[in-house]
Write a structure and sequence with these properties.
The chain is 44% helix and 18% strand. α1 packs across α8. It has a domain of 200 residues: NAD(P)-binding Rossmann-like Domain (Rossmann fold, 3-Layer(aba) Sandwich). It has 302 residues and is an alpha/beta fold. α1 links the parallel β1 and β2. GO terms for molecular function: aldehyde dehydrogenase (NAD+) activity.
């Protein structure tokens, strides 16, 4: 296969490219800024239909590994920014891929769409603009692609691991905290976790199969306390992690939501509803359970 990878200079895009090439496929890397290993510099969100058709021509499939993550925040409504970052570029890319005769595609998304699908009673999309944008990304993207271009949605949880010059962005303040001498605290819930390499493997397998499925990626389920304990040990700062009472967590998030409203800030994940995520066990049954300890060590030491 010959695959176009949009966002190929990022952490996950790097590992998708690596797995494509390890399996003998060709890959073209697209990114918004010049960087070693980037084949084409183009902002897909701002590109014309003609530019995208020329970009996609000659490829068997496309991967979208860009977009805005759940930390998006700013003044005014966040929904238009999330649409511009997550939905519009996917629609434009898939429209061009369909016109070029591509036969497979994958979009790197979020495991929150998995939980919104299997637990509608949690009302994640209703509460969080970011989750709504990811749902719309999948729905409108597939409508644009049509039946002849299957689009796999790779539902990514907490990711550990590194790439050249890249670490998981969520890990930067966390690792700084862990490396300090400050006490460690964690809520009672937990999350599915995977390695960046694991995301690359699952994405390439989805392309090879042209599956067009919703695919949650998970190698191991970790309680927050366990996750922090392992990260602290990997960083050489091993110490106990205390559990924060649920009522305290809820009060903290309610206060954070109030402060945001006063400041006129609108985050992708509504802070006042984050207790509904962090106090739950956001676990997914791993198809092939594997430890993420090596990826945790890479993240903590990067």
């Amino acid at each position: 296969m010959k695959i176009l990878v949009v966002g190929g200079s990022g952490l996950l895009g790097h590992h998708v490219l690596e797995q494509l090439r390890l399996r003998g496929h060709e890959a073209t890397t697209v990114a918004r800024t010049p960087r070693e290993g980037v084949d084409r510099v183009l902002d897909v969100a701002a590109a014309s239909d003609e530019e995208l058709r020329e970009l996609v021509a000659g490829h068997d499939g496309v991967v979208f590994a860009g977009g805005m993550d759940d930390r998006a925040v700013g003044k005014g409504p966040v929904a238009p920014r999330l649409y511009a970052g997550n939905v519009a570029p996917v629609v434009a890319l898939l429209r061009a891929a369909r016109a070029a005769g591509c036969t497979r595609a994958a979009v790197l998304a979020s495991y929150y769409t998995y939980f919104d699908r299997v637990h509608p009673e949690w009302e994640l999309a209703a509460k969080h603009p970011y989750v709504r944008s990811r749902n719309e990304q999948a729905r409108v993207g597939r409508e644009t692609a049509g039946p002849d271009l299957p689009v796999a949605i790779i539902e990514v949880p907490f990711v550990f691991g590194v790439a050249p010059g890249r670490v998981p962005e969520w890990s930067v303040p966390l690792v700084k905290w862990i490396r300090s001498s400050a006490p460690l605290f964690a809520p009672a819930g937990g999350s599915a976790a995977t390695s960046a390499r694991g995301v690359g493997i699952v994405t390439v397998e989805a392309l090879e199969d042209a599956s067009g499925a919703d695919i949650p990626v998970v190698e191991e389920n970790l309680h927050w306390k366990d996750m922090l304990t392992r990260m602290a040990g990997a960083a050489g700062r091993a110490r106990p992690v205390r559990t924060i009472p649920g009522a305290v967590v809820t009060a903290m998030f309610r206060l954070g939501g109030f402060v945001n409203r006063v400041a006129g800030k609108h985050p992708g994940l509504a802070i006042e509803h984050l207790d509904g995520l962090f106090l739950r066990e956001l676990f997914v049954e791993p198809p092939v359970p594997r430890s993420v300890d090596e990826a945790i060590r890479e993240t903590a030491k990067a």
